[in-house]
Amino acid sequence: MSDIAIQTQARSPKTSDHNHHAALLGMWIFLATEVLFFGGLFISYVVYRYEYSDAFVSGSRQLNLWSGGVMTAILLLGSLLIAVANRWVQQQQGNSRRAWVLLLMTAVSGTVFLGLEFHEYSHLISDGFFPSSDFPTKRFPAGSVGGNTAEMFFVLFFSMTGLHAFHMIVGVSLVAVVAVIAFRSNHATNRATGIAVVALYWHFVDVIWVFLYPLFYLVK
Amino acid sequence: MRLYLTFVGLLFLLALTIGASFLLGGVVALCVGLAIATLKMLLIATVFMELLHSRTATRIVACGGVFWLFVFLMLLMSDYGTRGLREPMPHGLYRAPSEDPSSRSSSRRTSSPSVRLLEVSRRIDTRDGGEQ
After folding, report:
1. Which residues in A lie closer than 8 A to residue B11 (C-beta atoms)?
2. Which of A47, B47, B79, B102 has its CA 20 to 30 A from that of B85?
3. What is the DSSP string of A31-85?
4. Using a CB-CB distance cutoff of 8 angstroms, which residues of chain B are in contact with residue A199?
5. A218 and B21 in contact by Cβ < 8 A?
6. Is pLDDT of B86 > 60?
């Protein structure tokens, strides 16, 4: 087969559609492994919450419930923005060329989320709640709740939300790159696949936070 | 339009989660919070991630990840439910017997099998060290 024939075949709508769906399937397989990756931490949470439920209640009181709620709303807004951008590009609507604006707004919403999260981290660290030898165990009531077990709550909080924040940083970077590509590229099909794959990743990170919020901020 | 309605629904569920945490407590609050989170996940997966309109292979992979996590959780909880680990563990994870001799006998009564195993292994280590 000549080079011209191969190029023609590569650009045919059928092959392009096949590549698009293969890319989406690949992303879903990656996300399934991510579910199990986070799953290990969720299992740790279940074990410690089961054993030391009182410690989790007193640990959760140190977190700002409303700040967590605003962070969740911002993340959901980012999901809406990237879903609309994805829809515009896939359906090749008249405003599909402006999808990069929505992508940029998604990246900004992610950055605001991270800013709020790091602000909360700084408050907790300045109050001495970062797990270390200086952890203020005596600030937690004695009895069924020991300081060491309350510290376990913060070990899980920082590790699970920290891992989520790392995923957010990757997500914001990917969305920013896709926004730049969408702004500069004229090849609609390339844009559609890239945006769809990154949108899946963004929604997944959103889903993880949807579970983290009640597990850490709303413990009563 | 469906995307915007889903977003409004997600915000409503978020408000419901926060409201339920004020009204309910304990295990009920946890179950309600997780049930609402699962609803949110389903909304995001089906509408935002377009799982309903995806190919069969994609849906199988998506369900597979959640299924194996579910199996993982069920095995863990069945272990808790059948091995008698419901008694409360002493706080502080593990306290060496030499620190507080009076608590040694009581911790033997109330501690879980894993803590008792640690105590036995420590006693064996001490005895072996003494013989050398």
Report:
1. 73, 76
2. B102
3. HHHHHHHHHHHHHHHHHHHHH-HHHHHHHHTTS-HHHHHHHHHHHHHHHHHHHHH
4. 48-49
5. yes
6. no
